[in-house]
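Sample entry (84 residues):
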Amino acid sequence: MDKNKEAFIYDENSRGFILELYNKYRIQMLKLAFSKLNDWHEAEDAVEEAFINIAKNYKKIINSESYEVKKYIIVTVNNISYNI
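Predicted structure, serialized as tokens:
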């Protein structure tokens, strides 16, 4: 992630949380976005936009159960994919 995207993350715990999500879910998010968009470049754009959204709203999910986090990520990627 570049510095502009990291600007949304205010402390090391939050930054670590977002980085963990990125490392854990990025490939799944790309596959999901590609299944909706049928274009790898657009899928990458959707995932990037999803992570910006997640970084802005990380407080909503940082203390959630892992299945709730995954659900939030799936909904975010789906919504962004439909809007591209």
